[in-house]
Amino acid sequence: MANLSDLVRSHNAESHCIHLKKPTGKNEEDGTEESIENDYPKNTRPLESQVAGHEFMCGKIKIGMLKHEDGYLMKPIVRPVQGERELAFYEQVQQSSDPILSTFKTFIPEYYGSSVVKVNGTEVKFILLKDMTHGFKEPCIMDVKIGKQTWEPGASAEKEKSEKIKYADSKNALSFCIPGFQVYDVNSKIYSKFGKDYGKQMDANGVYEALRMFLNHESGASKYILPPVIDQLRTALELFKNQKVFHIYSSSILMAYDAAVLRQLNASDSQNSVQSQQIGLKSWYCVSLIDFAHVVPANDQLDFNYISGIQSLVKVLENIQSS
Q1: What pLDDT, in 10s, does the model give residues 12-32?
Q2: What is the distance between the alpha carbons of residues 248 and 293, in angstroms, rounded to a whole number?
Q3: pLDDT by residue (tens digit) across 278-306?
Q4: What local confidence, expressed as pLDDT, does residue 53 receive?
Q5: What is the 3-state secondary structure (H, E, C) of the chain?
Q6: Cα torsion at 39, 24, 290, 18 (round to 10°)?
Q7: pTM
Q8: Residues 133/260, Cβ–Cβ less than 8 Å
Q9: What is residue 267's predicted lDDT score, i.e. its pLDDT?
Q10: CA 269 centroid distance within chain
């Protein structure tokens, strides 16, 4: 991949920086959006489609994940201990010859290593991962955090208490929650984006409503995206019914698809052979497991917290499919 190996090897970020004109960021002192001048690694820009988490401070401004034009993402390591744990997870999966762990490779973004670069004069370590939506013209993306328990064993009492409060209604009812999503409505042709504040207000009914909205269910187009997504989730569920290596907390499933393809499929009432072929192409949708900062050894025990979350998500999507 062009430029990737140089970026991974580089610890002298000055050669990788460019000057961007007045992007916007969030001022943490007053919460306002303000124009700032930033130096980002060359050929990168902020990930506009980011729907949850993974932000770091540059001065007074909070910046999220970065997107490289070559098709990979730069995820900042904000907390060193958790960040190194996530790196260790990717390294272990990538290097393992164990058949179960090898199956993880089909569900996680391709891992390209890590790199330390400067952003606005501050050295930041990034995990480099494949951009699962690279090439999507109208990316619709949802972050689904899996499991009723989103804190790892041994977390402080304060951490456990705060995690129990977050997204409590949806987690208690469904064993998963939705921190954020963006969707292109194929009827109105309008993009909408919903963040964590919206997600924290959801109960079970709100989750159903959000998923219907995300899947363009009202337009009837969900019939093209639901079957492959449910199929991928069922396969992931089978993986977790067999793996006893990891217990994974506060991790998410990223569901994404290209609304431009969905609109094309939905434009005709009948499915011709070209449409059928497109439905089978995985390139226009993805179901990926992401976020592994809170992974602990399974000690030969199944991860029932994660299993219950995937099972519930599959059931909800099946209910929407039949409605």
Answers
A1: 333 233 222 334 445 545 555
A2: 9
A3: 555 558 999 999 999 999 999 999 999 99
A4: 62
A5: CCCHHHHHHCCCHHHHEEEECCCEEEECCCCCEEECCEEEECCEEECCCCCCCCCEEECCEEECCEEECCCEEEEECCCHHHHHHHHHHHHHHHHCCCHHHHHHCCCCCCEEEEEEEEECCEEEEEEEEECCCCCCCCEEEEEEEECCCCCCCCCCHHHHHHHHHCCHHHHHHHCEEEEEEEEECCCCCCEEEECHHHHHCCCHHHHHHHHHHHCCCCCCCHHHHHHHHHHHHHHHHHHHCCCCCEEECCCEEEEEEEHHHHHHHHCCCCCCHHHHHHHHCHHHEEEEEECCCCEEECCCCCCHHHHHHHHHHHHHHHHHHHC
A6: -20
A7: 0.83
A8: no
A9: 84
A10: 32
Report the Cα 184 to chain-centroid distance in Å.
17
User: Are 143 and 286 a contacting pair, CB within 8 Å?
Assistant: no
Q: How many other C-beta atoms are found inside a 10 Å radius of the C-beta of residue 163? A: 18
Query: What Cα–Cα distance (Å) separates residue 19 from each residue in 9, 14, 25, 124?
Result: 22, 11, 15, 17
- As a whole number of angstroms, the distance between CA 198 and CA 209 comes to 12
More confident residue, 289 or 61: 289
- For 290, the token pair is 């992401």
Tell me which of 113 and 51 has the higher pLDDT.
113
CA-closest candidate to residue 182, choices 222, 135, 142, 218: 142
Q: What are the beta bridge partners of residue 253?
A: 144, 289
Angle between helix axes 222-240 and 304-322 (nearest 10 degrees) is 160
**Cα diameter, the chain:** 57
Provide Rg for the chain, Cα atoms: 20
**189-234, pLDDT tens digit by residue?**
999 999 888 889 999 999 999 999 999 999 999 999 999 999 999 9
**Edge-to-edge strand order for the sheet containing 122-130?**
44-46, 66-68, 72-76, 122-130, 111-119
